[in-house]
Amino acid sequence: MRSVVRSIARILVIPVVLGLAAAPSSAQAPAAASKQSEPKLDAAQRQDAQALVSAVDDVMAGKPAPSAISMKWEHQDFIKAQADKTYVPFTVSVDSATLKGKSIALYLRVVPSGATGAPAADDAKKDDAKKDESRPQYPFEDLYFFDIGTAGSTAATPAPAGAAAGAAGAAGSSESAGRAIVRRAFAVPPGNYDVYVAVKDRTAAGASGGGQASGGAQAAEGAAAAEQQPAAAIGVLKQPLSVKAFPPDEFTTSSIIMANKVDVLQAPVANERQADNPYTFGQMRIEPSVDHTFSKKGDLNIVFWIYGATPDANTKKPDVSIDFKFYQKTADKEAYFNKTDPQLLNAQTLPPQFDLAAGHQLPGSLSVPLASFPEGEYRLEIEVQDKVANKKLTENVNFTVTAQ
Fold first, then answer.
1. How many separate domains does the chain show?
2. Which of 146, 374, 376, 403 has the fewest CB neighbours in a 10 Å radius?
3. In this structure, are 239 and 287 located in the same domain?
């Protein structure tokens, strides 16, 4: 037991200053990224976009969802953002067997729960400016073109030896055999929503693969050729979601993010790349675990944010302590396993410039080597105490430790 205590005591606490980088403006950046840089679509991309938008319109109108591409909603997290919004990074897995290639187009639409309807039938006849005005204004929608295995996604099978790794490992990881992991995010006010994720296989349709747009007659010929090809594979996933609220005065936390690893970047991700890196906050890049299963050879990493802490009248800093207690599950019961030393967030440990009034978010974090943990199921109890306001809250997360 002593060796377990010493092992757990070697905690790699993510520098608290990283919490400053995760201020609400950073958390909301992915939602704004597409609005800041909307590149003109080429002819093939426009066809892909129209096909995806139409597919979601049809599903909202009550038609069966196309299922040529099989998808599964894996997980989402809720993090406080600016303007009373909640930032929602999420993970979807795609059945690799339903894809003919790696190049995909993805359309994301978030609507109020139960919303139905579709754009007017004559939208295609209008110019771009009028079309934008006539389309419904959804709480969130965006369109992405990327290859599975690049930032924000990863192939579910190992890359060939010598293949370029790109940024895939930082943004996602293979969580189940035969499935590709895709991560994106949106920011909306709290409430009940239907989230639509539509994916089109850009390889399946041949000419829709995505060369640069060509003008005049060539573009028309490309469109005509596309009409003669077999229908491209499309899948639409509808996920009901209740987005958590973060009232200004409530002592609470964000989702507890369990991560395979947490990296510190040399510089923040550029705004135009933020959508591809939904779990990157300032210079902190998180690779979340989908199934909360970790190898004894690795570490258990925890990241979250604390909201509503009361600053001390003298120091102007919060005075918060965090206790992490581990319980091992056996059969139909559980037993206390161990705990870490309390993590203190106060005037002595926080950076001098930390200021809740300026919108800085208070981070909680933990990294524990799992070598001394027996294989099996565990519950981690996280107790957060606001010593100034004499408030306490408890969060619980379950995880599994395996040999490999």
1. 2
2. 403
3. no
- What is the spatial distance between Cα 340 and Cα 368, in angstroms, rounded to a whole number? 9
* Co-location of 374 and 255 in the same domain: yes
Closest CA to 280 of 83, 20, 27: 27
* pLDDT-derived band at 40, boundaries 50, 70, 90: confident
Q: Compute the distance between CA of residue 47 and CA of residue 4 in angstroms, rounded to an integer.
A: 58
Q: Can you name the residues that pair with 367 across neighbouring β-strands? A: 301
As given in the structure block, the two tokens for residue 43 are 């002819």
- Distance CA(257)–CA(238), nearest Å, equals 23
- Domain residues for the domain of 327 are 2-22+247-402
Residue 2 pLDDT more than 50? no
Residue type, 149: G
In angstroms, the CA 209 to CA 165 distance is 22
360-400 per-position pLDDT tens digit: 889 999 999 999 999 999 999 999 999 999 999 999 999 99
Structure confidence at residue 126 (pLDDT): 52
Shared-domain flag, residues 233 and 251: no
* Residue from 150, 156, 112, 117 nearest 135 by CA: 117
| pTM value > 0.85 | no
Return the CATH number at 341.
2.60.40.10
Helices 216-228 and 43-60: angle between axes, nearest 10 degrees: 50
The pLDDT of residue 134 is 58
- Both 85 and 233 in one domain: the answer is yes
82 burial (CB, 10 Å; 0-12 / 13-18 / 19+) is: middle
Q: Which of 222, 243, 264 is the last residue of a domain?
A: 243
pLDDT confidence of 192, banded at 50, 70, 90? very high
Nearest-angstrom CA–CA distance, 382 and 395: 5
The two three-digit tokens of residue 358, written as one number: 């300026």
Kindly report the number of other CB atoms within 10 A of residue 339's CB atom. Answer: 16
- The residue among 188, 215, 243 that closes a domain is 243
Q: 277 and 386 in one domain?
A: yes
